[in-house]
Specification:
Structural class: mainly alpha
Order of helices and strands: H
Organism: Oribacterium parvum
Number of strands: 0
Shape: rod-shaped
Radius of gyration: 13 Å
Distance between the termini: 42 Å
Strand content: under 5%
Keywords: Membrane, Transmembrane, Transmembrane helix
Protein name: Electron transport complex subunit RsxA
Largest sheet: none
Number of helices: 1
């Protein structure tokens, strides 16, 4: 279905944001 096609993009975006969040948290 169309919803499953966009799901990986959302997961990757969430993963990158989480990595950036933890990265900035570690720097501060």
């Amino acid at each position: 279905p169309h919803s499953f096609q966009g799901s990986p993009i959302v997961l990757i975006t969430a993963g990158l944001m989480a990595i950036a969040f933890f990265g900035f948290g570690g720097l501060i």
